[in-house]
Write a structure and sequence with these properties.
Blueprint lengths: L3 H14 L18 E6 L5 E11 L2 E8 L11 E4 L2 E9 L5 H7 L4 E7 L6 E11 L3 E5 L2 E4 L7 E4 L12 E8 L3 E11 L2 E12 L4 E12 L5 E11 L18 E3 L2 E5 L4 E3 L3 E14 L1 E9 L8 E10 L13 E8 L5 E9 L7 E24 L8 E12 L5 E8 L3 E8 L3 E5 L2 E8 L3 E12 L1
Parallel strand pairs: 1-15, 13-22, 20-26
Antiparallel strand pairs: 1-2, 2-12, 3-11, 4-12, 5-11, 6-7, 6-10, 7-8, 8-9, 13-14, 14-19, 15-17, 15-18, 16-17, 20-21, 21-24, 22-23, 24-25, 25-30, 26-29, 27-30, 28-29
Length: about 450
């Protein structure tokens, strides 16, 4: 049975050699394509394409072709505008010219086989009728039925013509009714799938100066079946709420554009996005951003732990003006590096962020600290009588032992959540505050190579 690679090689050789006999192939080989293209890429596998071309259009009705449109075009979204033009009909031809389809279209027709005679070394041409082109090619050559096979003898296949239904690339054809003849700009607008984008960041922290450098990239993936050359490109992000480990409190205006409930990020330069390509474009490059390290222990409900619990480590910074610009940050992954004693970066973890408006505070979590721990303990618990009949109240005495094995003092943020209604802090060894109705926050200072005990008596409604 013929191997598909051999079939493809033979057909491609015929096409590359231009060996089309009997009549010249009626196929548009001009480069075509837009003179200007704009891309607006959304995060829901949807891209708006604005394609501008200069066409010489005769008066009255004519058929105009637009090669180079996306193979993943949504034909029902196409609109065409131009001075004095009316669209009568449009067709999208996406049956692309390939070696296999060319052979399949020749079933029942004659082709030419050019082989080299191994004895004489000369080319010999035979006419053959294609009987089938399924998993292999079956031919009638003279009075024999043969299978086109790989027998070590070089073979070229010659086709008499290219079928009218096969195109070298996706093509939109439109029938126009024009008022007067002449050259004019025509704008083709459509939606397509196959393009997507994501944001990635590299954050480099210098503990000695308590600053960080932040570099952001937009990665565009193109699987649309078309190449977009020198395109003015913008990516669009919504203000999503899931997938991040922070809560933003954006208050500052952004230099980026807004579109309803979405943010638009224009890329700094025009880009060429080839089909089946991943392209990375710089979005942000900020240096010297102030940052602080946070050690965090969170508990939902009260419990006694027999072993110390590692605390979470995060780096805090404000998404304020960076290098003179207010920038909203698209949702993405931040990979964090920290400078070691020699100044070389070492990877310490990664975190994801949601869409972050300018003016928001971020906490980028990189993992747990093995040398800073918290061990909670419930000292006592009792139900307290109350005159309120619809629920009871509970009073608990709790203790948190915070240990620090580092050579410098640290501050550990303890967040005790899962509280009941009408919480009261009746006693505490260090000042804390209710950040909301069901969460108490303490910031406990711990000396180097030492420990601090935090005690509190809390009464809550059940």
């Amino acid at each position: 049975m013929v191997r598909r690679s051999v079939l493809a090689a033979g057909v491609c050789a015929a096409l590359m050699a231009g060996a089309v006999q009997a009549q010249e192939a009626q196929i548009d080989t001009r480069p075509g394509g837009p003179e200007r293209v704009d891309l607006t890429i959304y995060q829901q596998n949807v891209t708006l394409v604005e394609d501008v071309r200069g066409l010489s259009i005769p008066a009255g009705r004519s058929r105009q072709e637009f090669p180079g449109v996306s193979a993943s075009i949504r034909p029902e979204t196409v609109s065409l505008s131009g001075r004095g033009l009316e669209v009568v009909e449009q067709n999208f031809d996406y049956d692309l010219l390939t070696p296999d389809k060319l052979m399949q279209s020749a079933v029942g027709q004659e082709i030419g086989l050019v082989r080299i005679n191994p004895g004489t070394g000369r080319e010999e041409t035979q006419r053959a009728t294609v009987l089938a082109a399924n998993e292999g090619v079956v031919l009638r050559v003279g009075g024999r039925v043969e299978v086109l096979r790989d027998d070590g003898v070089p073979t070229r296949v010659i086709f008499d013509e290219v079928p009218a239904n096969l195109r070298p690339r996706p093509t939109l054809s439109v029938t126009l009714d024009a008022e007067g003849a002449g050259r004019r700009d025509v704008t083709l607008t459509y939606l397509t799938s196959g393009l997507s984008w994501s944001a990635d960041y590299v954050m480099r922290v210098d503990e000695r100066t308590s600053t960080l450098d932040l570099v952001g990239w937009v990665t565009i993936t193109n699987r649309s079946g078309a190449t977009f050359t020198d395109a003015e490109t913008r990516v669009v992000a919504g203000d999503v709420s899931a997938g991040g480990n922070y809560r933003g409190n954006g208050v500052a205006a952004s230099d980026d554009q807004s579109l309803g409930d979405y943010y638009v990020y224009p890329l700094p330069e025009r880009v060429t996005v080839a089909n089946n390509q991943n392209k990375q474009v710089g979005l942000l490059d900020a240096s010297g951003v102030p940052t602080t390290k946070r050690y965090l222990y969170e508990s939902y409900g009260f419990s006694t732990q027999t072993q110390p619990q590692a605390v979470e480590v995060a780096w805090l910074f404000a998404n304020g003006p960076m290098n003179g610009r207010n920038r909203s940050l698209p949702a993405g992954t931040i990979r964090v590096y920290i400078n070691d004693a020699t100044g070389e970066p070492r990877f310490i973890g990664e975190d994801s962020i949601d869409h972050t408006p300018a003016g928001s505070d971020l906490a980028i979590t990189t993992g747990e600290a093995f040398d800073v721990t918290v061990q909670p303990r419930v000292i006592s618990e009792e139900r307290v009588s109350t005159r309120i009949v619809d629920y009871f109240r509970t009073r608990r005495s709790v203790e948190y032992t915070v240990r620090n094995a580092r050579s410098e003092p640290v501050t550990v943020e303890i967040r005790q959540g899962g509280l009941g209604r009408d919480t009261e802090i009746q006693a505490q060894s260090q000042p804390g505050e209710l950040s909301d109705s069901r969460t108490i926050v303490w910031r406990v200072q711990v000396p180097a190579n030492g420990e601090t005990k935090l005690t509190a008596t809390i009464e809550t409604g059940g």
